[in-house]
Specification:
206 residues, seven-stranded mixed β-sheet, globular, Rossmann fold, alpha/beta, single chain
Length: 206
Amino acid sequence: MARSKTSKKWLDEHVNDPYVKKAQVDGYRSRASYKLIEINEKDQLIKPGDIAMDLGSAPGGWSQIVAPIVGDNGKVIASDILPMDSLMDVTFIQGDFTDEAVYERILETLEGKGVDVVISDMAPNLSGVKTTDQYSSIYLVELALDMARNVLKPGGNFCAKVFQGVGYEEYVKDVRSSFSKVIIRKPAASRPRSREVYVVGKGFKG
């Protein structure tokens, strides 16, 4: 089947992307790894000994970064609807975390402890209809924020990918209501033409 001009352009851009090439050399599963590396260097979201939760974790690019930072005294719980190949020192739970059974499994893994940081690089399956895709993406980040509010310790941190558009300003305002400091980041590894930014919340009010 012939590729459309758009998909060919994306494929060419992807293959020639310096971060895609760098990820292959460095052994990371995703170019998104570099987004989290940059955010964490600037905002110190993740520390040794932390309990971290990675939502929408597949293929594992973010969990790969988090596990060595939290170290042996920390814990990484990753969850996604899609399967994810296992990673050392990462507990992966497959399923929709809004499903009660999956949510209960996540809570069991926490063993009654609070979480220090919740991160989310989730994005919806795109339909190509801009308004529909925007509503879907805002819905996902709202779910991530709900999860953060349920599991974070007071003072905990949050980071989620958000697409600018309808609902974006309201979402940032909502995050501000739960965190003492909110920063918007656009990492170098994020493609310039992409509407994605990362909303970073520090100091969960609990």
